[in-house]
Amino acid sequence: DASDIEKGTYPHYMLKEIDEQPFVMRRIIQKYQDENGQLTIAPEMIAEVINADRLYIIACGTSYHAGLVGKQLIEKWAKIPVEVHVASEFSYNMPLLSEKPLFIYISQSGETADSRAVLVQTKKLGHKAITITNVPGSTLSREADYTLLLHAGPEIAVASTKAYTAQIAVLAILATAAAKAKGIALDFDLKKELGIIANVMEMLCDAKEEMEKIAREYLSMTRNCFFIGRAVDYYVCLEGALKLKEISYIQAEGFAGGELKHGTIALIEDGTPVIALATQEHVNLSIRGNVKEVVARGANPCIISMRGLETDEDRYVIPAVHPMLTPLVSVVPLQLIAYYAALHRGCDVDKPRNLAKSVTVE
Ligand code: AGP
């Protein structure tokens, strides 16, 4: 649809694509529901998933970060072991494969050369592959045995936003469908949870002024920024840091809260911005302990937490969603903060230097 790729009243594609996320969630629900309104995946694909003894997720950049979240969902819900690999490393340093592996390629564009190189290798070894992509008919889609589409609409900005949340939503559907096929009972309705997430995403997209303020306050003068989190928040921190560095050129790094004391904390100086995510109850106290450690060394902390886990010191509180699906919402403030940081620095938000939308060379 041509109107899909117009910027309309938006100054940048990235901002438009961030705003489209609630709509994409609802479209995914629509596209993946069967005639009874249940979220499903084609039975032949699910058969491959549950017959595998291990899944190997292969991807690059933001798609790799979505894969990390997907691993957690598939292992916790469907009880299938999952490994997640950066494509460019996998092809030159292939791990020992299990007896019945299934490969899942995640690629917004479906054209990433590093991921394709692995697909060519694993096909040669006779292993089946599923591609999760936004582009029907793309190379990775054509060359895999099965395709799951993201239905996110064209993503034009180099910084991936709506594809990331679409990838996680599709992986969540895959995880629940595999659990169901294995007879594992889950105590929630994913369709309902994704509906709640779409609404929360909308509220977060309405918080642009607050995110712009955070960007101005924490990032306008800095040369670096750290993102810390534990458990699934750590994976979102990796994505938040990638967004910030690729469009604002601020050196940013995502760290597991507990790993700080093993080296990185040496970089904390007076005023160093540290953005901390606190959406997970079982690590809430420990991540807050990590915040205290960096504050004691002069850091300027910005805690983004989830309703129910918040304290007075938090800068922003996200409405509560299913605890396993928090990345779908916690990433939105980080996308917006990166956007405004880049904007304030006069950067070319949609076309950052040295980068291409899809990397078609190895
Ligand atoms: C994300 O913002 C990036 N520009 C980049 O990391 C991207 O996710 C990566 O190149 C993978 O692309 P793909 O999903 O099209 O394979």
Secondary-structure blueprint of this entry?
Blueprint: H1 13-19, H2 21-31, H3 43-51, E1 54-59, H4 61-78, E2 82-86, H5 87-90, E3 101-107, H6 113-124, E4 129-133, H7 139-143, E5 146-149, H8 162-181, H9 190-205, H10 208-219, E6 224-229, H11 232-248, E7 251-256, E8 273-278, H12 284-296, E9 300-306, E10 316-318, H13 327-344
Parallel strand pairs: 1-2, 1-3, 3-4, 4-5, 6-7, 6-8, 8-9, 9-10
Helix pairs in contact: 2-8, 2-9, 3-8, 4-8, 4-11, 8-13, 9-13, 10-13, 11-13
Bound molecules: 2-deoxy-2-amino glucitol-6-phosphate.
Can you describe this structure?
The protein has helices at 13-19, 21-31, 43-51, 61-78, 87-90, 113-124, 139-143, 162-181, 190-205, 208-219, 232-248, 284-296, 327-344; strands at residues 54-59, 82-86, 101-107, 129-133, 146-149, 224-229, 251-256, 273-278, 300-306, 316-318. It is of the alpha/beta class and 362 residues long. It is globular, with a radius of gyration of 20 Å. The protein is built from 13 helices and ten strands. Helix 6 links the parallel strand 3 and strand 4 (129-133). The strands form two sheets. The chain has a five-stranded parallel beta sheet, with helices on both faces. The protein has a five-stranded parallel beta sheet with strand order 7-6-8-9-10, with helices on both faces. Bound molecules: 2-deoxy-2-amino glucitol-6-phosphate (AGP). 2-deoxy-2-amino glucitol-6-phosphate is lined by residues 60-63, 107-109, 112, 115, 158-160, 246, 358-359. 2-deoxy-2-amino glucitol-6-phosphate (AGP) binds next to helix 4.
